[in-house]
Structures are given as structure tokens and as C-alpha cells.
């Protein structure tokens, strides 16, 4: 689903009307988070968020894996595999698994480190522990089944926690105060424009940015583009294209984890060709389009982005602290 626009505006009539439902949803989630989880045999670092929708969790998780490897560890990703039919535990093999099997994000993760898909997080952690010495959970902060050694909450600095209400009145999965005890540190991606994340909470707050691939960015600079994306906040991708100098003349915001059909992709390409525009999409979307038809994928441009912390030594120190706490 796409996050409704009113989630990111000051509370209005619709948010107010839905707030009683949001209160119930948030209370149920908070109570669920308070349950004790099973411990894994290796450290578990969770990369989650307090809200629904995309905040940059997957690029952050990939960066964490790269840094852990640089620190001499053998990281393994653990993910539910949203959008895939695999129950697991299954180790992702990009040569034989597609998005319909394991979802889109696991295929991106598997390019960096071994990746286990499992609906049962405890069983998944046991399988992951056989492949490495530290588990990185991509999402799952609100899932209590598995005890987290260290939980890192990723926040999109442009929108923060939106209107501060819980689903369906707003983007929060539970009230911030109820989720805070389960978070060890925050990473704010982009300027903390909303001032939602505060050092006064007694948690480390690090900042960073999603950096577009410089080679692709150079190709798109000055070009007229048709941008489309099925991610949590497509507007963030469109804004990134503008920052690299592309002229975004048309956009198409699709639901997060959008399942592409051939007709969808062909229609998008026809629209771009009619207007003389370069069709551009995200790495997450390209994984699904390439699996559908490599030739169609070859007719469009992908702009990948990686997470870069503003203070790399501080970020590494945070990871060392997480591992030390597990010793």
C-alpha cells in the first residue's frame, strides 16, 4: 500500500476521526513488543523503524553488513521476505529465486551477504547462525519473537514520525514513548527537519544520507526523465533525481512492493517513449522488472543509492558497542 498523504501533514479531520482506531492499534502493538523473545546463538542487530513505509532501512542494513565485514565479522541477513511465497527458513539464491519466491528486498540484500528468508524469525535466526556470526534483521523491530541484541531505528528526516498518530490515523506503529525502550540508537537519514528525534531521549542519534550512484547520476544530469517507483515514499526518489540534475517531467508513484505485470512495464515504457523521456526507477523496482523480462529492464535506467553516515567512525563505534554488548 501507499502511505496516505495526510499521514505527513498536521492532524486534520480524517486523522482525528481515525485516532480511536489508531489508539487501539498502537496499544496492541506496544503490548506485543513487550513480550520476551527467544535468544539466538549469535548477536542479532535489528534495523527497523517506528513507522510504516520506507525510511531507508534496507540501504542502512546493507551498510551495516559491509561495516561488520570490515570489522572482521561474518554477517547474515534475516528477513521475512515480504511479497514472496517462501515460508522458510530458506537461504536466498539469486540464481534460482525470484521476487515471487522471496520478495524484492531479499534479492538486494543477497548481493551483499548471505540472506535467510523466514516467517518464523527464531527458526530463521537459527538457520542464519549456521552461515555467519552475526544476524542483521531487516525490519522486525515490532516483532517480539526474537530477542534483539541491538536495535537501530531508521528515521526519514524529511517526514519524521508524520502527524504523530498511529495506523490508520498516522504512520506510527505504536506511540513513540512505547517503542522507545526497545530502541538502542537512531539513524536519521537526511536533515532532521521535523525535530522528531531528540538527544534528550538518552539514545545515540547518528545522521547520514542516501547517496545516488555517481556514474548513473552523471548520465542523468540534464536529461528529461519519467520517474516511477514502488517504494515506501516514492517522492523521496523523485527528489533524489532532481538533486542529481535530472529534469523530472513525469512521475508515477506505485504502492510499496508493487507487483509488476508485463502490461504495466510496457505501458510505462510507451508513455516515456511518447514523451521522449528517459524511464528511470529504483533498484528495488528493477529487481522485479528484470525478473519479469530482462529485455524490458534493459530499456530503462536504474538509479541505485547507498547509505553513507555523516560520521563513519561514530557509526563503526556504535556497531562495536552493539557487538560488545553481546559478548
For the sheet with most strands, the description reads: 9 strands, mixed
CATH class of the largest domain: Alpha Beta
CATH superfamily of the largest domain: P-loop containing nucleotide triphosphate hydrolases
Q: Calculate the terminal CA-CA distance, rounded to whole Å.
A: 40 Å
Count of individual beta strands: 13
Using the CA coordinates, give the radius of gyration.
20 Å
Give the count of structural domains: 2
List the helices and strands and how they pair.
Layout: H1 13-33, E1 44-48, H2 57-70, E2 75-79, E3 90-91, H3 99-102, H4 104-110, E4 115-117, H5 121-129, E5 134-138, E6 150-156, H6 176-179, E7 185-189, E8 205-212, H7 214-220, E9 224-229, H8 234-243, E10 247-253, H9 262-275, E11 278-281, H10 283-292, H11 294-297, E12 301-302, E13 305-309, H12 312-326
Parallel strand pairs: 1-5, 1-6, 2-4, 2-5, 6-7, 7-8, 9-10, 9-11, 11-12
Antiparallel strand pairs: 3-4, 8-13
Helix pairs in contact: 4-10
List descriptors.
327 residues; Aspartate Aminotransferase, domain 2; 2 domains; 9-stranded mixed sheet; 4-stranded parallel sheet; 12 helices
Amino acid at each position: 500500500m501507499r502511505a496516505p498523504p495526510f499521514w505527513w501533514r498536521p492532524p486534520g479531520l480524517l486523522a482525528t476521526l481515525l485516532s480511536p482506531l489508531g489508539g487501539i492499534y498502537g496499544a496492541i502493538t506496544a503490548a506485543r513488543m513487550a513480550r520476551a523473545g527467544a535468544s539466538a546463538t549469535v548477536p542479532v542487530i535489528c534495523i527497523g523503524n517506528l513507522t510504516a513505509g520506507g525510511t531507508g532501512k534496507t540501504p542502512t542494513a546493507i551498510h551495516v553488513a559491509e561495516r561488520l565485514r570490515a570489522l572482521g565479522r561474518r554477517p547474515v541477513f534475516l528477513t521475512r521476505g515480504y511479497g514472496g511465497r517462501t515460508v522458510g527458513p530458506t537461504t536466498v539464491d539469486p540464481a534460482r529465486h525470484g521476487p515471487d519466491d522471496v520478495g524484492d528486498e531479499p534479492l538486494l540484500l543477497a548481493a551483499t551477504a548471505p540472506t535467510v528468508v523466514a516467517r518464523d524469525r527464531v527458526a530463521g535466526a537459527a538457520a542464519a547462525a549456521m552461515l555467519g556470526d552475526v544476524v542483521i534483521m531487516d525490519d522486525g523491530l515490532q516483532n517480539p519473537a526474537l530477542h534483539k541484541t541491538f536495535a537501530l531505528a531508521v528515521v526519514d528526516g524529511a517526514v519524521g514520525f508524520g502527524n504523530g498518530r498511529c495506523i490508520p490515523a498516522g504512520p506510527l506503529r505504536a506511540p513513540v514513548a512505547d517503542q522507545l525502550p526497545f530502541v538502542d540508537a537512531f539513524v536519521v537519514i537526511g536533515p532532521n527537519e521535523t525535530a522528531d528525534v531528540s538527544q534528550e531521549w538518552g539514545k545515540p542519534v547518528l545522521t547520514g544520507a542516501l547517496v545516488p550512484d555517481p556514474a548513473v547520476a552523471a548520465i542523468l544530469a540534464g536529461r528529461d526523465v519519467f520517474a516511477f517507483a514502488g517504494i515506501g515514499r516514492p517522492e523521496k526518489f523523485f527528489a533524489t533525481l532532481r538533486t542529481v540534475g535530472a529534469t523530472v517531467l513525469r512521475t508515477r508513484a506505485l504502492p510499496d512492493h508493487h507487483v509488476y505485470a508485463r502490461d504495466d512495464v510496457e505501458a510505462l515504457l510507451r508513455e516515456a517513449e511518447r514523451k521522449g523521456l528517459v524511464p528511470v526507477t529504483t533498484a528495488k523496482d528493477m529487481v522485479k522488472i528484470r525478473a519479469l523480462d530482462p529485455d524490458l529492464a534493459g530499456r530503462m535506467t536504474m538509479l541505485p543509492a547507498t547509505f553513507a553516515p555523516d560520521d563513519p567512525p561514530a557509526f563503526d563505534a556504535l556497531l562495536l558497542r552493539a557487538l560488545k554488548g553481546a559478548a
